[in-house]
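Practice problem 4.
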């Protein structure tokens, strides 16, 4: 299984999508309880701009169980795919779960901010992005105003008269 899966992943990386998919179809039949196979096949579907086909594969991968980098990738892939197909509430739910499971990974908050934008929760989206910028940027200008950026991040509509 590992050898076939590695080959399918390499083909996907090389953008040989049709050949990669042929291997994934065989792997799913041979190993229907392997979350990794469903996750990587979903990723392939996303690469091929077949988001609606990716969703059930991502969901199945989570159901079967993933760990580490694959779990992080699956959360990101599924959350982003939900957003791309207009399932904003589902997207937000996945990103909230990902942030709980991986609190030190800012990428989930960035993708959640995109979803919050789609949910018309602009203030919360800006708050998230401003905090991430202030907390992760090494830009000297950003760092010199870090305290101010953090202070104002949740007060964007407030007037100080």
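Answer key:
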């Amino acid at each position: 299984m590992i050898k076939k899966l590695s080959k399918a992943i390499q083909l996907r990386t090389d953008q040989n999508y049709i050949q990669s998919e042929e291997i994934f179809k065989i792997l799913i039949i041979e190993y229907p309880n392997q979350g990794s196979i469903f996750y990587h096949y979903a990723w392939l579907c996303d690469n091929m701009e077949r988001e609606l086909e990716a969703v059930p594969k991502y969901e199945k991968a989570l159901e079967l169980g993933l760990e580490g980098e694959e779990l992080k990738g699956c959360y990101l892939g599924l959350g982003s795919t939900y957003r791309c197909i207009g399932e904003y509430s589902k997207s937000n739910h996945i990103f909230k779960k990902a942030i709980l499971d991986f609190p030190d990974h800012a990428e989930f908050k960035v993708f959640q901010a995109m979803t919050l934008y789609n949910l018309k929760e602009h203030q919360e989206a800006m708050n998230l992005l401003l905090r991430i910028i202030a907390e992760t940027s090494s830009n000297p200008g950003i760092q010199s105003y870090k305290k101010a950026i953090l202070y104002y991040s949740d007060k964007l509509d407030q007037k100080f008269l």
